[in-house]
Amino acid sequence: MEDIFGKALLDYLEGNDWKNIKTHSSVAGKDVMPLSYLFRAFEEMPLLEQKALELCKGSVLDIGCGAGPHSLWLQNHGFKVTALDSSKGAIDTCRSLGIEKTVHCGVLDYSGTTFDTLLLLMNGIGIVGRLALLVTYLEHFKKLLNPGGQVLMDSSNIIYMYEEDDDGGVWIPGDRDYYGEVEFTMEYKGQKSPSFYWLYLDFNTLENAAMAHGFTCDLVSQGEHYDYLARLTLKK
């Protein structure tokens, strides 16, 4: 499969004839992903991301690292951080920016090392895709955590994006199990990615799933637009 995302990151980093990534989603329709935002400095990050970075401890696995802005900040502040992404271009970008430890694979394929912090930002839990797979990821996270470790993740409750019925209910498409399962395609320089699902997870659903699978789940902070930062720790 063509690594559209990674190609865009490398074009931007190398100053090639880059374009912003176009996206199309089953909820919001057409949109644009500005490449400059993927390389943002700490001061340009949302407050939830800044808070998450400040809460990191010990060794950190930056899951879905993208261009590596979070990994780079952590590394520059003395953390032992590993940047992980399924996009080869993203990992090549991280290496070019000086991130010392990188892994090119999906998190479910990664094992053998444990961490004090698992970090999933920019709606990081989105990698789960479908709600039915959340349990698989939670169980895998257990295997990646050191004793006393934590998972820091952000997401959004996107129920507000759906139309209300006359009786106050919300109309949800019948082809998905949960309203936060959003189908995306990306386009870059005329090339389109295969469609994929990205999960937007409301906090109550996350909390219930986490508690059912051996975690405590704390709401650390809430943003201005239905977004939040959560911290998961294993029950003692």
From TrEMBL:
UniProtKB keywords: Methyltransferase, Transferase
GO BP, sorted A to Z: methylation
Pfam families: Methyltransf_25
Domain of life (superkingdom): Bacteria
InterPro entries hit by this protein: Methyltransf_25, SAM-dependent_MTases_sf
Keyword Amino-acid biosynthesis applies: no
Gene Ontology molecular function terms on file: methyltransferase activity
CDD domains per record: AdoMet_MTases (cd02440)
Domain called Methyltransferase: residue spans: 60-149
SUPFAM superfamilies per record: S-adenosyl-L-methionine-dependent methyltransferases
Protein name: Putative methyltransferase
Native species: Flagellimonas lutaonensis
